[in-house]
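Attaching the record inline, Q. Sequence:
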Amino acid sequence: MQAQVKAFFDPATWTVSYVVFDAPGGHCALVDSVLDYDPKSGRTRTDSADQLIAFVREQNLMVDWILETHAHADHLSAAPYLRKHLGGKIAIGGKITQVQNVFKGIFHLEPEFATNGSQFDHLFEDGDTFAIGTLQAQALSVPGHTPACMAYQVGDAVFVGDTLFMPDVGTARCDFPGGNAHTLYQSVRKLLSLPPETRLFMCHDYPPEGREAQWECTVADQRARNIHVHDGVSEAAFVAMRTKRDAGLAMPVLILPSVQVNIRAGELPPPEANGVSYLKIPLNAL
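Structure, as predicted:
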């Protein structure tokens, strides 16, 4: 059965969230949800997540999974909010433990913060299979952007996270802690070894001037036209390009709040004695 996919684009963070389902009245998974966050005021909203909830209820779907492709550095996850209202298990790649270990030190988190991934309901390893109703799905480890990056193949659809962007945008950066351009190249080739008609769904789009946001293409499109890794680009050439390009990139606007929340599976830090949760800004640490 072919997966049905509904996309939701958030223009504030250029993020695309998805509902992937077997049929109306059936089962679904939610992929890479967004909790709206205003960095100027520190306030959160649930407008983006509420769109997913409305669609799930409109289609009378049962949520089996709330999937994260990685611990995002550009938006906060709404996974706990969605689980509260719709059910489902929050899942991510098992190497999230490496990311938690690094950022627990960077943010000097509370001693009680566990770095074993226990904040998530399920940790996937490469090749693990699972079901979304009548759809068969598989977790595909695609590290390089981060150590914990996981793509999810559902039928002929693959949700690639930040590993790939649309062909005219290229690939993800590799200069975050644990990132590696050599590893990313191998992960990209793994994805591009899938059948050419396989549908690929991006987590972000940063369209060039004059193009509307897009988020779906095929393996064949990427192999023919990706500006960074089309067929014929060697690993050495890719690594040289990626290393030079990453050296000139600014940090994402929301990296500090996002990572602190997302390594907690989308939960806010525990409230302090006054009942308020706080995010940290480490000075001169990144």
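Residues 235-247 form the longest helix (13 residues). Helices lie at 47-58, 79-86, 96-107, 181-192, 219-225, 235-247, 255-262.

More tomorrow.
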